[in-house]
Design goal:
The protein is mainly alpha-helical and 257 residues long. Helices cover 81% and strands 0% of the residues.
């Protein structure tokens, strides 16, 4: 369900059908209760209140039982699991309320049941007709209670295969994140190595250029290269490095000023 938007699912449809079934049973249950009340408006009101109480109890107890099943501890198995789910006050109350509804609807079917041609022609006992169209309605209500419980159970408990798939996906995601970290680390190291290589190459190119100038045929180039590399050297020392006379060194250096 999205916030601010109501979405109808299978569980909502089942509850709508279930409540509709209880509404069909309500008049029959009210008629049975009315047989034990004084004639008149008061008796009718009391009968309908009693019938509504029992049919509403069926709906509420079904809802409570479904919620109880949903909260079944996962550690329970076998008989312990069955006992936790169905041997409780919710299930007992539901069975009692359904028993009253079954008797009321069976009594109504027997009281007002008429001969149906298919039962007469096939010589089917009237009791089968009465049970089929009377008592079976509350029993169908019990079946809906079980179905609704199954819906809640399937929504509350995750399929083991899906849980295993989630676990595998989580492990793969963790491994993928670790691999991404390794790749990023390797890439960072590669970039750093590339930068060091570029710096070394620049230094090497600079050294090669300096060496070419320092050992050039032109003495003037040798003198200028020595001055640029060692600005604080005396002219006499530069003259030795450049293999030139001190006077020529002074001439070249004074000419550059």
């Amino acid at each position: 369900m999205t916030k601010g938007k109501f979405t109808i699912n299978t569980n909502h449809i089942l509850w709508a059908v279930y409540v509709g079934l209880l509404a069909v049973l309500l008049p029959h249950t009210a008629w049975a209760f009315e047989q034990f009340e004084p004639a008149g408006l008061f008796g009718t009101v009391v009968a309908w209140m009693g019938a509504f109480s029992f049919e509403a109890a069926i709906a509420v107890l079904t809802h409570k039982l479904a919620g109880h099943i949903e909260r079944t501890p996962k550690k329970l198995q076998g008989k312990a699991k069955f006992a936790y789910r169905y041997l409780n006050a919710y299930a007992a109350g539901l069975v009692i309320a359904l028993g009253v509804s079954v008797l009321a609807n069976l009594a109504h079917a027997v009281e007002y049941g008429q001969s149906v041609k298919i039962f007469t022609a096939w010589q089917i006992p009237f009791g089968v007709y009465a049970v089929t169209f009377g008592a079976v309605l509350p029993l169908t209500s019990l079946l809906f209670a079980r179905v609704l419980s199954n819906v809640v159970e399937s929504e509350g408990e995750e399929d083991p295969m899906i849980a295993e798939l989630r676990k595998v996906i989580a492990e793969l995601r963790s491994k993928l994140q670790l691999a991404e970290q390794v790749v990023r680390s390797a890439q960072a190291e590669a970039n750093e190595s590339k930068l060091r290589a570029m710096a070394a190459e620049e230094r090497l190119n600079g050294a090669a250029e300096f060496a070419a100038r320092l050992f050039a045929e032109d003495k003037r180039q040798r003198i200028l290269a020595a001055r640029e590399q060692w600005p604080g050297l005396a002219s006499s020392v530069i003259a030795v490095i450049a293999s030139a006379s001190p006077a020529y060194v002074s001439e070249v250096l004074n000419g550059e000023k």
